[in-house]
Amino acid sequence: MLAVTGVTLAVLAVILLAATGAGVLEVGATQFDQADRDLWVSAEGTSLSPARGGGFTNTLTDSHQVASEIEAHPDVAQANPIAFQSVYIDAGDGEFQTIIGAGISGTGNSVSIQSGRDFSAPNRHYANGSYDGEMTYEVILDSDTADQLDVGVGDTVRIGGSLAAAREHEFTVVAISSTFRQLLGSQTVILPIAELQEITGTTERDPATFVTAVTEDGAGPEAVATEIEEQHPTLSVRTNEEQLLAVLRQRASVLVAGAALVIVAILAGLTLTASLLWLYVHHQRATFAALLAQGVSPWTVVATIAVQGLVIALLGALVGVVLAVPAGVVLSQVAASLVGFSGLVTVAPWMLGLGAGIALLVGTIVAVVSTGALLRGGLAVPRK
Amino acid sequence: MSSGAEVTCSEVHRTYQMGRQSRLRRLLGRERSVPEVNAIDGVSIEVGRGEFVGLAGPSGSGKTTLLHLIAGLETPTAGTVTVDGVRLDELSSRERTRFRLDTVGVVFQRFHLLGSLSARANVALPLLERGEPKARRRERAANLLEQVGLGDRLAHRPGQLSGGERQRVAVARALATDPSLVVADEPTGELDSETADRVLDALAAVTADRTVVLASHDDRALDRTDRVIELTDAERTRAVPTTDAV
């Protein structure tokens, strides 16, 4: 029973560690896919993470103009700038906190609204670059931020690039959406980009982190990216996959952690199962000696223990696989509440196979090898 | 049913080395003498067919060693052990294994059962070695367990059985191959008196007409034997006095 429990734990460790490792690598790809964009256009060195001093690297200037030029490409259906900038926010009580402000040109299909409505006029303030259009003062909060500030749709919050600016700008919460929170892994408020630029005092340069583009149906994103780069040599144009890789390269620790978790999963499973079966076999050495004393041949002892090892591994693998799925769901929810990314622990069929395979293969082999080694080394006949 | 084996030990010596010569010392040619201890020294006994003989004596007197020599588990340093006319020291390791399978049943003080197997599977294991068909193995194991009073415990694993029940399973396993010689080393050593009686009853029930050599400190166990051979301190050279039947 204890041996089966041990193998079960080994299988669970393999599956859940592998699921976490692979999840770390896959969640980024999924988020990029869910962003419903084909191309990510940036100036040099843009990173999708907070830069020095709490701000984001919004190095792409005149972003609306750049977006218009890209949208003029015959194979581009839509192009919009996105900016990320740290902002201060409170619910009117003076207890400001810093948070990531995401400036967008419209929610489109890329922002999943949980409650409330879309922006009424996200580009009105931009007014073709004059920034003299009326501000909508509309904001979308993620659910965690809304909970922290104890506000909901229809309530008012104050936001600005500085404390002074925040005290002067009251926004109405029009919707709750966790799309950007999941993409960035941090609490995020979403504003019309021009209004984000206005309250952070950056309208002069019209900065953005990216211009994202959606290509026409049938157009190849890679070919379009190459053409845009030829037209705009100072810009870097990446497909979803390239952008993810670029982000991951900047976050080498994420890659290393993900890969390390997968490797640790395999090693942990191997070690745990092997040591467990080895102990199980050695625990019975006196019994083997007693069987040999009875005239049972070493081969029969090895075969018997091999079957035992297989049965223990099989039972452990079965229980481990059955428990892994709900355990993965629970772990994923815990991870989501801690780091903001949902689906960080995703148990795939190959992981179940990996866990069960390691248990079955290693369990049986170690049972046979360790029994064989014991017998080769000579077992003392029990004197009791 | 077997009619029992005839056992003769003649001037048997068994010496053990206390510790090992290290490989490094051997390689360096700096071997040192390893102390030796005489477990038994010049023992001669005879056990007739179908006899139930007890071995008595203080701890360290060589009871277990003598049992191992009679069962072919070890070979004597000097002297001869003969079972049914076969000199065990002249058999190869493989032949002695076969000899034990065909001729000897061993019961230890501790039960040494495989914890993951049922009582029936533990008893049937030696029969697997003989290539007996599964149905026959199961039937034989069930019959033996029935004889030792465990007919209702066939599917129980050792962990689900009491100490006395486990020892009775071990007795049944020792008899699985229908041996003509049964050696039992302190089979009641870990049991209370009531449980010990049940185990001895079981042993008596399944060993009728077989030769049994039982080593014990337990007078009640020795009381059940036809005669008792008393071993004295084995550290020094000595003869083995034989008492009359108790």
Outline:
The complex is a heterodimer of chains A (384) and B (246). Chain A has 384 residues and is α+β, with helices and mostly antiparallel strands.
Q: What key attributes describe this structure?
A:
heterodimer, A: 384 residues, 2 domains, 10 strands, elongated, B: 246 residues, 5-stranded parallel sheet
**Count of DSSP E strands of chain A?**
10
Rounded mean pLDDT score of chain A: 81
Q: Characterize the largest beta sheet of chain B: strand count, sense, and whether it forms a barrel.
A: 5 strands, parallel
Largest interface: A-B, 21 and 32 residues
Name of the CATH first level of chain B: Alpha Beta
Into how many domains do the coordinates of chain B divide? 1
Query: From the 3D coordinates, which CATH architecture of chain B would you assign?
Result: 3-Layer(aba) Sandwich
Detailed description of the structure:
- The complex is a heterodimer of chains A (384) and B (246).
- Chain A is an alpha+beta fold and 384 residues long.
- Chain A has 2 domains: 151 residues, no CATH class; 191 residues, no CATH class.
- Chain A is elongated and about 100 Å long.
- Helices cover 53% and strands 16% of the residues of chain A.
- Chain A has a 6-stranded mixed beta barrel.
- The relative contact order of chain A is 0.20.
- Chain B contains 8 helices and 9 strands.
- In chain B, the strands form 2 sheets. Chain B has a 5-stranded parallel sheet.
- By secondary structure, chain B is α/β, with parallel strands linked by helices.
- In chain B, strand 7, helix 7 and strand 8 form a beta-alpha-beta unit.
- Chain B has a single domain, classed as Rossmann fold (3-Layer(aba) Sandwich), CATH 3.40.50.300.
- Classes of the chains: A alpha+beta (384), B alpha/beta (246).
- At the A-B interface, helix 10 and helix 11 of A face helix 3, strand 6 and helix 4 of B.
